[in-house]
Amino acid sequence: MYRAIDSFPRWRSYFYFITLIFFLAWLVKNVFIAVIIETFAEIRVQFQQMWGSRSSTTSTATTQMFHEDATGGWQLVDVDVNKPQGRAPACLQRMMRSSVFHMFILSMVAVDVIVAASNYYKGETFKSQYDEFYFAEVAFTVLFDLEALLKIWCLGFTGYISSSLHKFELLLVIGTTLHIYPDLYHSQFTYFQVLRVVRLIKISPALEDFVYKIFGPGKKLGSLVVFTASLLIVMSAISLQMFCFVEELDRFTTFPRAFMSMFQILTQEGWVDVMDQTLNAVGHMWAPVVAIYFILYHLFATLILLSLFVAVILDNLELDEDLKKLKQLKQSEANADTKEKLPLRLRIFEKFPNRPQMVKISKLPSDFTVPKIRESFMKQFIDRQQQDTTCLLRRLPSASSSSCDHSKRLAIEENKYIDQKLRKSVFSIRARNLLEKETAINKILRACTRQRMLSGSLEGQPAKERSILSVQHHIRQERRSLRHGSNSQRISRGKSLETLTQEHSNTVRYRNAQREDSEIKMIQEKKEQAEMKRKVQEEELRENHPYFDKPLFIVGREHRFRNFCRVVVRARFNASKTDPVTGAVKNTKYHQLYDLLGLVTYLDWVMIIVTICSCISMMFESPFRRVMHAPTLQIAEYVFVIFMSIELNLKIMADGLFFTPTAVIRDFGGVMDIFIYLVSLIFLCWMPQNVPAKSGAQLLMVLRCLRPLRIFKLVPQMRKVVRELFSGFKEIFLVSILLLTLMLVFASFGVQLFAGKLAKCNDPQITLREDCHGIFRISVSVSKNLNLKLRPGEKKPGFWVPRVWANPRNFNFDNVGNAMLALFEVLSLKGWVEVRDVIIHRVGPIHGIYIHVFVFLGCMIGLTLFVGVVIANFNENKGTALLTVDQRRWEDLKSRLKIAQPLHLPPRPDNDGFRAKMYDITQHPFFKRTIAVLVLAQSVLLSVKWDDQAPVTGPLAAMSVVFTFIFVLEVTMKIIAMSPAGFWQSRRNRYDLLVTSLGVIWVILHFAITNAYTYMMGACVIVFRFFSICGKHVTLKMLLLTVVVSMYKSFFIIVGMFLLLLCYAFAGVVLFGTVKYGENINRHANFSSAGKAITVLFRIVTGEDWNKIMHDCMVQPPFCTPDNSTYWKTDCGNYAGALMYFCSFYVIIAYIMLNLLVAIIVENFSLFYSTEEDQLLSYNDLRHFQIIWNMVDDKREGVIPTFRVKFLLRLLRGRLEVDLDKDKLLFKHMCYEMERLHNGGDVTFHDVLSMLSYRSVDIRKSLQLEELLAREQLEYTIEEEVAKQTIRMWLKKCLKRIRAKQQQSCSIIHSLRESQQQELSRFLNPPSIETTQPSEDMNANNQDNNIQPETSSQQQLLSPTLSDRGGYRQDSTEAGKPQRKFGQWRLPSAPKPISHSVSSVNLRFGGRTTMKSVVCKMNPMSDVASCGSEVKKWWTRQLTVESDESGEDLLDI
Fold first, then answer.
1. DSSP letter at 860?
2. Which pTM value belongs to this model?
3. For 223-270, how does the pLDDT look when each residue is reduced to its tens digit (9 = 90+)?
4. Helix/strand/coil for 630
């Protein structure tokens, strides 16, 4: 990058390399970790039998065995292996088992570790071999030998070696005993001495449990270590055979050298040097093959092998499925307990006596002295009266439009409390009635469910596979029926034993589920009670302590000034626009901008802008342009302090400082705000003119650099990032302890073996220290690759330097501190090759094993532990660590549905014209594949450099022009096929149109002016075109979505990293702004300004030579020029400051923040990468829903009316299909859910998709506790309302049928009366009168009979039944008789036109001609009403007939 900066414009180099590192090193590379983790999680099930199931931490001192009890049964009992089995006296056995003895031994181990860590190199003058450290080691060895003998005496040898811990202790005893032998002291047996520190793990149970969790199941991690070692051995042997014959290449001459070279490539440190040396040695012919060989090995080792270690560690940290729900319940209970207690800063008021605020009523007319009354007691009546008045005035019309007077309102207010008392008196009766109604409805629902289940089981002939919606609906119905016990006592006779056993197991399972429901509800009630108790405690403190909730104990609780401050502090932009009628949230066009404005309050927005402006002003500061001497920079300082003073005063007056519920200092963010304000205020008031190095003024300037951290407190999402960092501090601390223990072991070993042995004379000709004196001439080379041709007798340029016997510049092992610093640098895989080469060259080749073992343990296990712990903590903070497999799939489904969008593909044109043909062509798969091939072919043109002076550039540009015209043709065809509006709906089409437009512009510029800039523009257009191919393949689209969504979700993490980097850059300018140039501090990489410091820190984030930069910043006299007056006049560094500065920055950024990016990528990859078996809703289901949605949403607005949901559900097919014949009730539930949740308004694409997702999963398995309770309550309410609506509609139909029968009976009576009148007129009129023509009344009667609706003759049941829904059956033989079938009486067929014969009248009465009816016909003077009364009695008798079927069956509709 620095060479590119010297050759090209600075902005181009920075942009290219920073984006390259961000996308490739931080995003794309971490996708491999996600792939390996997901793949490993899939294949782990296959190796479960080999590795064994996960188990919790068990004590190594106990075991279990079968023991026969008194009844003859067998049971597992715990057997203590520490039970005395030796021959020692009882007093020694009790002493050995005591905790005092255990802690004494551990304390002696700690003292031994401290003594070993105190060892250091004393110089060549100290020749004594037996120093104080040797005698201390002998004493400790004897002590621990006696401990082992005592345990063997107390437990017996068999009982002693049965414990793994005792075996390890015995091994240490034997090794350390041999180590104190004089000839073996300071040899390889030193490992046994330093390994005693491992025994200190027993001090902390949390650390012991964590170590067991990681390394306890050793089969997986051990197998992976063996696989890695085998891979290194095999690849080393292959490389040895391939390159051993190459001359001038000493890296593969022997197997150890080949092993070290391949191990170096595995660690990524200097692997390019290994490849370059090999390429130069093999020649140009075999160079490409060798390069591919090394690159493939490097990619496999770094991207796959290291990711496997992360996957194994994550799998070890994973909990069992049966423990996750238990952990969820315990976590919910713990949260309820913590919510019940007030913070300590509020509970301090409980230590003071109660002094409630009292008031004196002076205006109450009375003859007696009225005592003082609590203010809160009187205030509640005043508040209630005001509230009731307000509510009443809202209900009453306005004064301008109302006609009621003031006296009526007062009367209503007086009678309100009387009405409340009356309501309370009848509350129990109403509650009882509601309970009875609810019980009756539940009984009806259970009966309906049972009838449907029985009918479905009898049919048992499904025409096709049932949809997941139907399956889940029937599962829920069956679960509810079994849970209520409706099916427990009904067992048919024909069921087999297997069926009975299955039903019994189902009943037991649902009984257990019912108990889980009670536990969940109990936890929910406990949470509500905890919140209620917390509020009660707060109200009691508010009532009994007058200074509670008073800012600074001065401002009143309801003071006007405090209310004003609250309004100013809490004012924010209302992002949600609701409909005043329906209450639904409106989707505005710029909702994303509105959400951003409503993210924080207006006051916080002002402070964010002020803080950003202040940080920009600080970026212009440098050691040569200081704020103390630049008035323009002081303006931003004054503005920041003034605005922050106003902000803090407003917040303190509104919420209080410390002893209030919503105080400013209630968490770490408030403390940080006050600290930053005080530092800024002190610096502004002091403004020191001279700042000496390593002084308090310089420390104040360093603390002032923490100002950008204010944004963490102001933005809620940034506070969430901080919580994610610090909430998992316990596990990160445990990993740090393990790594420090590992470094301490190797550092102590390194001090005892390498102390004083790494020093060397700077003159390569001198090998002995006695000869290292005087001066010598050292040659200077301009470049290591530049060989100057010298004339005969001419020497290379150089200068004379004194001879010095010294250690290597960057590391040594003379004491434990320097050794741990060197090993920390090695742990970051930077500089370990130099350490290895120095140890091999100056101590011996056998000691190279030391550094290789440490690098392997630190790199493969230590660093991957950080990755695994950060990922596990991230999942735990998001709540996904304790999720079961089904719950995690449900969370992935919800996230996937949020990303899903309606298809932006317009429908095919209706006609078969030109547009329809274009549509078919552009949507054909062959056309899409052809375009993809053309894109790849155009991208191949960039394989040759486009230089304006090269002759090949012209033909390449011409070919690119041809490709551009083809893509223009493609876009034109799509616009014609889809119409411009339809083409613009798709984002992919917009991107294609943008790239094509840029291509056309480039073609015009290319033929107009041809230069280097046009060629560069053409290359950029080809690159942009290449990215369009990612959306045309499923796998590439999945990976692209993973990267894009990861960038979106990690936005605030990246911003947090930049803020931390900005703070460190400001501090680096103060600490190292004038450090002299060294090995890596140069004109490109330095801290002279904030911009260059940011570049250096970004380089350190990548890990590139960060340790060398640190050592350059540690330079001390006599290698620099000190100045005690001001820090900007010296070129010396700061040793302690550099050590804390660079190590803390590298740990926070490289080990924690970057691993958060890995966690986000892993989460998003698991979101998109899932097989069809793992998905609750597959991609085909989503694609089918998108297609159906486009059919219903014809306007492409993304919303549809609620009534269109019915049509959408009917169009769904496949796994989302709803069969109206079998699942009509489910269809009603889904439609009513949309109406209820959206109040009959418009529903969006995601609303319907969310409803289908809830209906397609088993909520008992997939949903978490709170969400499960809310969903079950919603579904129960929906089922109850649908049942009520169904019963209401059934009753309306019944009433409608009854009314139709009544109208039919009235028409029969009317026709009888007409016939009687006709008969009477016959008797009264003489026969001579012509009656051939029908009268007008007869015609009218016939017309009335003919115009009756057909439905009245089809629906003739008195009450509807489930068994017979059609019309009444007519019997030809008994057409006139009343028919009864299944307990229901039926009327005869519809009446025909009345005839003039007696037989027709007989048929009307069912063929039963009574004497009274004949008299009515014969006697014209008889009462006509007597015949009508006969019909009325018959109709009444039919209505009073009771059915034999039960009421439950009648209600089963």
1. I
2. 0.73
3. 888 888 888 999 999 999 888 888 888 889 889 999 999 999 988 888
4. coil
